[in-house]
Amino acid sequence: MRTLSELEIEGPPTQRVLVRVDFNVPLHDGAVADDTRIRAALPTLQELRRRGAALVLVSHLGRPKDREPELSLAPVAARLSELLGVEVRLAPGVVGDEVTAAARALEPGDVLLLENVRYEPGETRNDPALAAALAALADAYVNDAFGAAHRAHASTEGVAQRLPHAAGLLLAREVATLSAIVEAPARPLVAVVGGAKVTDKIAVIDRFLEIADAILIGGAMCFPFFAAQGHAVGGSLCEAEGIEPARRALDAAAAATCRLELPSDLVLGDRFAADAQRRELDGVEVPDDWMGLDVGARTAQRYAAEIAAAGTTFWNGPMGAFELAPFAAGTRAVAEAVAAAPGTTVVGGGDSAAALSQFGLADQVTHLSTGGGASLELLEGKRLPGVEALA
Ligand code: ADP
Ligand code: MG
Hints:
single chain; alpha/beta; 6-stranded parallel beta sheet; about 40% helix; elongated; binds adenosine-5'-diphosphate; binds magnesium ion
């Protein structure tokens, strides 16, 4: 990957840099509800402005089917202006004559934000015409959108082929940190994997079975494992398509040096709600009419001890329905253990990141990945098209 410092952008004439950022942020009442991703891009933007470049920023937001005004980047432009302390102008579209004129008028340090790149249907098709039109707006390209790097889109892959390019500071740090986990981890290497569906994460579980010392399973995804072992799961969220992959992972674990750990106690609710009836279960045989909504206290303690002793911990996916206060304790215990661990700690996944923030611990981990899907694909050993294009 070409680095930012290798990119020649010093003028005169003023060099315009097209920067792919990940401003796919949650909105609420027409304003940015969580600006974590915007803040994460600031070091790259500040560095480029310090070197005298003019910036043309490009990002997607949500999945517009059309030019839906609710998915305009206008609220992002407003928030970014505040954070950068400079006016960020929003272009009237993604490409076109008016956008070209706005880009041409930029002076050193100026910032222009293009509209939601997915307003253009060519974006997800990696349309060469859109990639060429984006490339024509600038003299160089920087990709800092790690969260979109697993997609070969016009703004992540196509455009990189057409301009001198480099990785942004955030993307470079994401790739370096996540690659280090699989290539040269401080041991023991412990993966804590939870969340809703085992099929989302089975590839990364399979990979960690080869390289990790222990995998600790939590969240609803423990139920396909329990079903595969013949336990009753009651009314728990148990993905049917996950049972076969879970069975295969259990078989693989029996032959591997890596331990695959499952919960040994659970917290049950009578339904998925904050005011549900709650009971603790010493064991994992879930009665009918009850659902497992969190790991139990003994399991949480066991997992916390593993995390405390780990050289490296990778955590993806909450241990339970942490959005509901009565079922948040297991996720909180893991989050606190990760925050306090002396080893390297890396957290990926949108909901895991949200849990860390909810507990006020987001700044106490070594690395909080901004890319859920991209971080999993990198750990699985897949090639990320947006990263490959920066070679
Ligand atoms: P991440 O975004 O960190 O990758 P996921 O999206 O895979 O995590 O999973 C998060 C979701 O899983 C949360 O909404 C949480 O409520 C849900 N979840 C976790 N455990 C359970 C459970 N036992 N029953 C129902 N839902 C659960
Ligand atoms: Mg999620």
